[in-house]
Structures are given as structure tokens and as C-alpha cells.
Amino acid sequence: MRRLRVAAKDSEGRPVSGARFDFQVFNYGGFSSIARLKADDKGEAALTTGLGDLLVHASCGEAWGSAFAKADGPPAVEVVLTERFPPLETVEFDFAAPPPQPAGGPEVSPAEKAKKRSAPKKRN
User: Fold this and answer.
1) Whole-structure pTM value
2) Contact criterion met (CB below 8 Å) for 56 and 67
3) Distance CA 55, CA 77 (A)
């Protein structure tokens, strides 16, 4: 798990209070929202998430912007909101899947394992 902090700023670098953040993960060939948060008075919000890369959109009124939050990047991302439409260009995405994690689950004690082995087998 990781804690990601995001900040919405206007083009002059001032915080955008009340901005709305949309956190998205790339899955099955498209982006899916995993959380939506509202910025505090400082234009900030925080999310505890998994270890994959995220695309973060922010908007407030007619202003909007986007930023990438790489899993191996810094723990804070700044999104600059502007009302201008960016020039049309090709954008290359290089998203990383989370690293493999060991299978989870409860630990089974040796006594519990022995009990299961000695239990009568059920017949169908």
C-alpha cells in the first residue's frame, strides 16, 4: 500500500480549493475510476492505494488538468488546472502493473493442519 498526496494548482501556482480529483487505473485496455475526492482549502487530498500507476484528473468549474502518478515515483503529485485546451498531440502511456505479491490468507498452524488431516473424509 502507498499514500498518494495530490495538489490542484492554477496556472499561477495558487491552490485550487474545492477541486475534484478522479483517480484512474489502467485495466482491461481502458481507464477505470477507483476513487473521487474533493480538495481541501489548500487544494490538496490524499488517497491510500495499491502499488500500480495511476492517472489523476482534477477539475474545478471550467478548469481541468491531468497528471501521472507513477508507482515508483514521488509520494505527491501536482495537477495544474487550466481552461485552455492543450494542443492535440500523441501521448504515450507507459503504465506499470503492481509487482507480484505473495498470496495472502490466514496462517494455518501445525495443529490445525494435523486436525484437518485426521478428520473423517466426507462422501458425496
Assistant:
1) 0.74
2) yes
3) 10
